[in-house]
Design brief:
Length: about 700
DNA sequence: ATAGGGTTAG
């Protein structure tokens, strides 16, 4: 959508001439404003084939045509079609159809433009529209199918080819190798008349990607004349298996290292948790490229060092390295993990400027960020902006809706997904079942569960059974839930019992809840979530002292809270909550928050807060209660103090003192009326409503 | 037109 928009803007500022080819000498008529010949000729002088502006290409072509220089126009077109970006492919096609003169290069160029932009169906249609294609075209089409993992189609192209060169062989070998069919890849490799370095490397890489390190190494060792790509493929293999010692050995041993070698090692160290090693390599490498930067941003982010990740994002620009899709993606992902909505929005603005928001990876990260921050409307918009939605896009949107209590919407998206030809995977079904659970749609959920194998070939895993236990349990069918647990082909794990415990809590079955909790404690003695759930179970049935005991026991056993879920993680849209709707995940979190606080205060010897009744209270009253409890928490921790009568949202300039770090690592953000506290000590201060990263820009 | 490095959800 963004691309089209940009195109429209370009059109309106600079009209594209249309050509009438019917007359012998091409005449040009203009869609709107008239541009003089001399003006166009002047523009042609400034035209360069490195130009990314489609309008300039069009002018170049039409000016040549007007001057009767069909050959020149053809040359321009052929250069253009080969490098068309997705937004311009249709433009290229339009001109292509009007060209009076086409040669093999034009046809190939258009075909390649389709293939490169993932439009394999268009490529196929074009290919079928004529007979005499060159070898390059055959190879190109086959490569397109391989990239789309459509092996059968690729093979049929390969079999139908009139002649084959080594590229044809290598392409089909790569196809099998990258799709786990190493036997066939090997057969073709041996059958191939020419085994060049591409073929050898494709085999090494194939074994690596299929986790067969020994086979990869044996091919690698037997390989004549290796180049750096081969070395890098082998190093990547060790990196994947977290064998950094072996990777390092090869890295030191290889005759000449290129940027890829360094980047592979950096990523390897970062993903194995050795972020300092990664940094060391990054600092010492001879020439960093944009991928090195992205790798570092991702590395810091994945190791919980959000601030450093964002610093690197900023530093990257200072180093004159242009921000690319990948760096945006990583930075957005970082924002997700710390629920930094304001910063995320700033990034959103910037990537719209860069025209990146329609990309799949970036779009998915943006969508996830909005979901994580509870901005479901913005999430939906981001979702719609993604041009080629993949399974992750759909899963994230469905999960986002389900998680925020919009079960019906989640299912609507799922129905839509089915019509697009993107196959739902097991993660999709988890979200779909969760959506049914939240919407109370037991029958529909069961239908999905029992038909997912038939419809999509997805075998139910334990996690799906756990969803079903949750679905039945939430709907009050505790008997059925237990029966399912007895009869399912897996042993229930702590999460399954947790679903039963949660259901018991909602429906006030203390006995069953206790039983489930007992089993969970045996399985996972340090599972903090279960202590909390059991405590909530007691609290729900009014057994406050038992609830308190659970908390104490948890503390005495030295159970650590799950990082990232410290105390409260609520989103910023409290006004959308339905009061008393216990199925709403936010309501759940508010309960947790208030109960935790209440107990904490009691344990710390503060005057007990009032018993919380959230059902049927007015919005205003709810806010008041939240404010009341927040104040108590503030006093208890000495972190912040809210003067009586002031709404919470006016709190600003919080500073977390050293003493509080053990209890709550820091306060990350204040959004609206709610406080988000997070277990992370990276940021030391914040201003209300925005995080300190704003200073970066 | 073929081989290697970074990025997305849970």
């Amino acid at each position: 959508m963004g691309g089209n928009y940009r195109l429209r803007q370009l059109h309106s500022s600079c009209p594209i001439p249309t050509i009438n080819f019917k007359s012998a000498k091409p005449k040009i008529s203009y869609s709107s404003k008239k541009t003089s010949t001399s003006q166009n000729n002047k523009k042609l002088q400034n035209f360069s084939t490195t130009d990314s502006d489609i309008v300039k290409w069009n002018i170049a072509i039409t000016t040549h045509m007007r001057n009767g220089l069909c050959e020149s126009a053809l040359r321009v077109f052929n250069s253009m079609s080969r490098r068309s970006s997705n937004a311009f492919v249709d433009e290229a096609r339009e001109i292509f159809d009007k060209m009076p003169l086409k040669n093999g290069i034009s046809w190939n160029g258009l075909l390649a433009a389709y293939v490169q932009n993932g439009r394999i169906e268009d490529a196929k249609r074009l290919f079928e529209s004529k007979m005499d294609w060159t070898l390059v075209s055959w190879n190109c089409l086959m490569g397109g199918f391989v990239r789309k993992r459509r092996l059968l189609d690729a093979r049929s192209v390969f079999d139908r080819m009139p002649v084959r060169d080594e590229i044809s062989w290598n392409t089909i070998i790569t196809g099998y190798a990258q799709n786990g069919e190493m036997e066939e890849a090997r057969r073709l490799f041996e059958e191939s008349p020419i085994q060049d370095v591409f073929a050898w490397t494709a085999m090494v890489s194939g074994y690596v990607q299929n986790g067969k390190l020994d086979e990869a190494r044996s091919i690698f060792d037997r390989m004549p004349e290796k180049n750096s790509v081969s070395w890098n493929a082998m190093i990547a293999g060790y990196v994947q298996c977290k064998r950094m010692d072996m990777a390092r050995e090869l890295f030191e041993e290889m005759p000449s290292r290129d940027a890829s070698s360094w980047n592979t090692m950096i990523t390897g160290y970062a993903q194995s948790g050795y972020i300092a090693h990664a940094r060391n390599l990054f600092d010492n490498m001879p020439q960093r490229d944009s991928i090195s930067w992205s790798a570092m941003i991702a590395g810091y982010s994945q190791n919980g060092c959000s601030e450093e990740a964002l610093h690197f994002f900023v530093e990257m620009q200072r180093d004159c390295e242009r921000l690319n899709r990948s760096s945006f993606t990583c930075a957005l992902s970082t924002c997700s993990s710390i629920a930094a909505l304001e910063l995320g929005k700033q990034l959103h603005c910037r990537l719209v400027k860069a025209g990146y928001q329609t990309g799949c990876y970036v779009g998915n990260a943006l969508l996830a960020m909005y979901c994580k921050c509870g901005s479901i409307d913005e999430a939906r918009d981001a979702f719609q902006e993604i041009l080629e939605k993949d399974v992750v896009s759909w899963n994230t949107m469905i999960h986002g809706y389900a998680r925020h209590g919009f079960g019906e919407e989640a299912l609507t998206v799922f129905e839509l997904m089915k019509t697009t030809g993107i196959r739902p995977d097991d993660a999709t079904m988890v979200s779909v079942l969760a959506a049914c659970s939240h919407a109370g749609l037991v029958d529909q959920g069961s239908e999905y569960f029992y038909s997912m194998n038939r419809d999509y070939g997805i075998t139910a895993k334990l996690v799906h059974y756990t969803c079903m236990v949750d679905l039945l349990g939430r709907a009050g069918q505790l008997e059925e839930a237990q029966n399912l647990m007895k009869n399912m082909p897996f042993e229930p794990d702590a999460a399954t019992w947790g679903a039963l415990l949660g259901a018991s809590r909602i429906h006030g079955n203390t006995e069953l809840g206790e039983k489930a909790a007992q089993i969970i404690f045996e399985m996972e003695p340090h599972n903090s979530g279960m202590y909390i759930l059991l405590s909530k179970l007691y609290a729900a049935s009014g057994r406050w002292s038992d609830a308190g005991k659970m908390r104490l026991e948890m503390r005495n056993k030295g159970v650590k809270k799950v990082p990232g879920y410290s105390w409260l993680e609520v989103q910023n849209k409290i006004h959308t909550f339905k009061v008393g709707d216990t199925s709403h995940p936010h309501t759940d979190k508010i309960y947790t928050f208030l109960e935790e606080m209440d107990l904490k205060l009691k344990q710390e010897g503060y005057i007990s807060s009032t018993k919380m009744v959230f059902h049927d209270v007015e919005e205003e009253e709810k806010v008041h209660m939240l404010k009341y409890h927040s104040e108590k928490l503030a006093v208890a921790y000495g972190i912040l103090y809210i003067p009586a009568g002031r709404p919470i949202r006016v709190i600003k300039n919080l500073r977390v003192c050293e003493d509080c770090h053990n209890a709550i690592k820091y306060i990350s953000k204040i959004v609206g009326r709610l406080i988000i506290l997070r277990d992370n000590h990276r940021f030391h201060y914040f201003e209300g409503g925005s995080c300190s990263c704003r200073d970066f820009w």
